[in-house]
Amino acid sequence: ESTSTVPPTIPVESTTTNEVLPFQCSHHTVIDDPTRHILYNATRTCDDENLGWVRFIDGANNERSMIIPTEQPPYLEHCGAVVPGWLKNFTYPTTIGTTVQASVCFDFVITGSTERLCLYTNDIQITNCGHDFFVFNLPAAPRCNLRYCTI
Length: 151
Known about the structure:
Layout: E1 29-32, E2 52-58, E3 64-66, E4 83-87, E5 99-109, E6 116-128, E7 134-138, E8 146-148
Parallel strand pairs: 1-2, 4-8
Antiparallel strand pairs: 2-3, 2-7, 4-5, 5-6, 6-7
């Protein structure tokens, strides 16, 4: 079990709008689950239910906000799942209050190959709620053994 931490890939500078933040910025489920971290490599579970709007935090690190990584996890069987989910070809929105669509990639290795392919995807929504904090509208993963990863 690794105890290393990887800094988040959240933009440092943000622009703001004069609008009130979207409803989901104050009405979401907070998930403090270290087994979702990109470096965690034990236990296996899956996101087989609709999670709705969630905010990921690292309770062991002053409740720092966590995000879904934009780079492929280094290995399969990390993030507390057989197949970790990550955001392929995605940049987090910098404008506070903005909600964007994104696609989560769940990698698999095809038998007889070493190449990891994005065989399953899930369309999600992500809202920038300011102060380096994002919320995610997460449907159930396409099948069991798939799970949203955090960093």
